[in-house]
Amino acid sequence: MTEISRYALDMAAKVEAFVRDVIVPYEKDARRDHHGAPTDELVMEMREKARAAGVLTPHIKADGSHLTQRETAVVLIKSGLSPLGPLACNTMAPDEGNMYLIGHVGSPELKERFLKPLVDGSGRSAFFMTEPAEWGGAGSDPSMMKTTCRKDGNHWIVNGRKTFITGAQGAKVGIVMAASAEEDTKGGACMFLVDLPDPAIVIDEVPNTIDTSMPGGHATLTIKDMRIPADQMLGLPGEGFKYAQIRLSPARLSHCMRWLGCCIRAHEIATDYACRREAFSKTLIDHEGVGFMLAENKILIQQCELMIDWCASVLDTGSLGTVESSMAKVSVSEALMKIADNCIQVMGGTGVTERTIVEQVFREVRAFRIYDGPTEVHKWSLAKKIKRDWRKAQEAAKEAAGA
Q1: Which of 22, 94, 241, 252 could form a Cys-Cys staple with 329, CB 3.0–4.6 A?
Q2: What pLDDT score was predicted for residue 138?
Q3: What superkingdom does the record give (predicted)?
Q4: How far apart are CA 397 and CA 91, in angstroms?
Q5: Is the pTM value of this prediction over 0.90?
Q6: Total tally of structural domains belonging to the chain
Q7: Residue at which a domain ends, from 197, 213, 237
Q8: How many angstroms separate the CA atoms of 353 and 336, rounded?
Q9: Is 178 helix (H, G, I), strand (E, B) or coil?
Q10: How is 24-85 classified by DSSP, letter by letter?
Q11: Is 120 inside a domain boundary?
Q12: HSE of 273, CA atoms in CB hemisphere, 13 A
């Protein structure tokens, strides 16, 4: 197991102080778009303060190297103590995952052009993978991808539709995923880095959603005859699905980290409320029905921390960690949902108002149970692995008996 460095621990402490002292007051800031998400003006103002405090993009060092996953966890959990914290510190989704992918797969030229503005916090990004259900496109099953790319000289032409593309509206960098129409790629997918906005990408709709923490919302869009220079392909042709796994496993875990931070804060708020509010001649926490919910939260928070640390340790060995990240995503998202629900219940009527961030945390965590793969898809995938392992064990037993 990799050790957590003093650098990472000190950075986590700096991030926590910054989020609690500087960013929490911004939670009442009225600069929101009509979907309820923070405006880019607000985001950039907070990032300037993060830059001044030395906590902008804290998971990537000045030399461009990433913290280990265990170290990233201690930092990202602290950035999540406010729903605005990841935006301010530049640890938000999808940017954090996109930085990770470009950093691991991109050429030096692509890193200079597309990664640099993400790391320095001057622009946002979007990851174009999911497609509309009514179009029969890829959702939880990326093999259903209908967006296509084909060669045309030293360019690739991309056509298709995408949906629930977080942050597409207002983003400066895009990672576009498309199924290759070229025979030599055997139907594999390709990834491309593109500058945004691009006239070939038309946003059709940005629906209002239950979550409101991400600028740009979750857009549905059409890509028509988009010409992308061949040297903007990320990695090799036909390898897109492999690269998606490089990104998705740590990205799922990063979601767990950030939203655990939010739930820790919600638990603090609910605890403070329960220890001050009186009913039936004693404080709420002294009533077992309330105290036991907070006790359950404490247990669940500890379980989440252990699950995140375990999965991070696996990823730090160099493993893709798809199984481990699936287990972590299911376990942590479901536990956080219970923590947030308990906080609402403890606070009663106050818990469902905008007086605190508790109701927002509840909404955001509810969405988290769906994005990056809903609980049921991860369980289905794990069940398939259980069956494969069982078959291997049976075959091994037969061979041993035959010997």
Answers
A1: 252
A2: 86
A3: Bacteria
A4: 48
A5: yes
A6: 3
A7: 237
A8: 19
A9: strand
A10: GGGGG---B-TTSPBPHHHHHHHHHHHHHHT-SSTTB-TTSPBPPHHHHHHHHHHHTTSTTH
A11: no
A12: 21
- Whether the Cβ atoms of residue 135 and residue 146 lie closer than 8 Å to each other: yes
Other C-beta atoms lying within 10 Å of the C-beta of residue 205? 10
Closest CA to 173 of 207, 198, 151, 203: 198
At 61-116, the pLDDT tens digits run 999 999 999 999 999 999 999 999 999 999 999 999 999 999 999 999 999 999 99
* Residue corresponding to tokens 């983003």: 171
In this predicted structure, what is the pLDDT of residue 54?
98
| 60 in the same domain as 140 | no
Question: Which CATH number do you get for residue 177?
Answer: 2.40.110.10
Task: State whether residue 184 is helix, strand or coil.
Answer: helix
Convert the pLDDT of each residue in 119-174 to its tens digit. Answer: 999 999 999 999 999 998 888 888 899 999 999 999 999 999 999 999 999 999 99
Asked if residue 336 and residue 251 are part of one domain, the reply reads yes
The domain that holds 377 is classified in CATH as 1.20.140.10
258 inside domain: yes
Same domain, yes or no, for 229 and 249?
A: no
The DSSP element (H or E) to which 223 belongs, if any, is: strand 218-229
Percent of the chain with pLDDT over 90: 92
